[in-house]
Design a protein that fits this description.
- The chain has six helices and eight strands, in the order E-E-H-E-E-H-H-H-E-H-E-E-E-H.
- It has a six-stranded antiparallel sheet with strand order 4-3-8-7-6-5. The chain has a two-stranded antiparallel sheet with strand order 1-2.
- Strand 6 and strand 7 form a beta hairpin.
- It is an alpha+beta fold and about 210 residues long.
- About 40% of the residues lie in helices and about 25% in strands.
- The longest helix has 23 residues.
Length: about 210
C-alpha cells in the first residue's frame, strides 16, 4: 500500500484425487520473506565492498580456514604467489585447500625467504630442511594457539630472495579462520638504514 516492493515466497502443493491421481486443486500461500531477503542482500553487498577494499589494498591479504588451508587471496596476494617461487597455484582453489598448513609454510620459507627475524642474520639457505620445517612449525603453532580476536605483532619481518622486505600480522577471526596481512617495508628499511648511517657519521664528526 505504501508503493514499495516486498519479497514474497510463493509456496504451493497439489491436492490429488486418491483414486485417479489427478490434481483436483492447488493449495498455496505467500510468505513475507522481505526482512530475511533484505538482510542477505545487505550481507552480500557488504562482502562485495570488503572484497573491493581488499583488492585495492597494496599489501598481501590471505584468508585461511581454521585448519590453516588457504581460502582466498586478494589481487596483490595472487600476483605475489605467481611471482614468488611456489608450488601453489593461486587460481587453483582445490589445490590451495589440499596442502597442509605446515607444508605451505615450509615451501614458502624454503623457496622465497633469504633471512627472517629471529635468525640473527643467518640465511635460510644455510639451514637444513629439518631446521626450516622447525621454523614453519613454530609459525603454525603460534597461529593455532592464538585466541579469537588476537593479532600477532608487527615486529616480525622477512627479507625475500627478490630483495624486498616484508612485515605483517595475523588475526584470528571468530570462526577460527585467520586473516594474514603483509606489508612491503623495503623502502622503510632503506630509509632506516640511511638514517642510521647518517647518525653514525654525525657522531664520528663530533668526536
Amino acid at each position: 500500500n505504501d508503493g514499495n516492493y516486498r519479497w514474497l515466497e510463493d509456496k504451493a502443493v497439489a491436492v490429488r484425487n486418491a483414486e485417479t491421481g489427478r490434481t483436483e486443486r492447488i493449495l498455496g500461500f505467500n510468505e513475507d520473506v522481505h526482512e530475511t531477503k533484505s538482510e542477505a542482500e545487505a550481507m552480500r553487498s557488504s562482502q562485495e565492498r570488503l572484497l573491493e577494499a581488499l583488492d585495492a589494498f597494496p599489501g598481501l591479504v590471505v584468508l585461511r580456514d581454521k585448519s590453516g588451508k588457504i581460502l582466498s587471496f586478494n589481487k596483490r596476494g595472487k600476483f605475489l604467489a605467481s611471482e614468488w617461487k611456489t608450488d601453489l597455484d593461486p587460481n587453483n582453489a582445490e589445490q590451495l585447500r589440499s596442502i597442509e598448513f605446515i607444508d605451505q609454510a615450509f615451501m614458502d620459507i624454503k623457496a622465497n625467504i633469504k633471512t627472517i627475524s629471529g635468525l640473527e642474520g643467518q640465511l635460510v639457505s644455510e639451514l637444513s630442511d629439518q631446521e626450516v620445517r622447525l621454523l614453519a612449525k613454530e609459525y603454525v603453532d603460534e597461529i593455532e594457539n592464538m585466541a579469537v580476536g588476537a593479532t600477532t605483532d608487527l615486529e616480525a619481518w622477512a627479507e625475500m630472495n627478490d630483495g624486498t622486505v616484508w612485515s605483517g600480522n595475523t588475526t584470528k577471526l571468530a570462526d577460527g579462520s585467520t586473516l594474514n596481512v603483509g606489508f612491503d617495508i623495503t623502502e622503510l628499511r632503506e630509509k632506516e638504514k640511511a638514517l642510521s648511517l647518517a647518525s653514525e657519521e654525525a657522531n664520528k664528526a663530533n668526536e
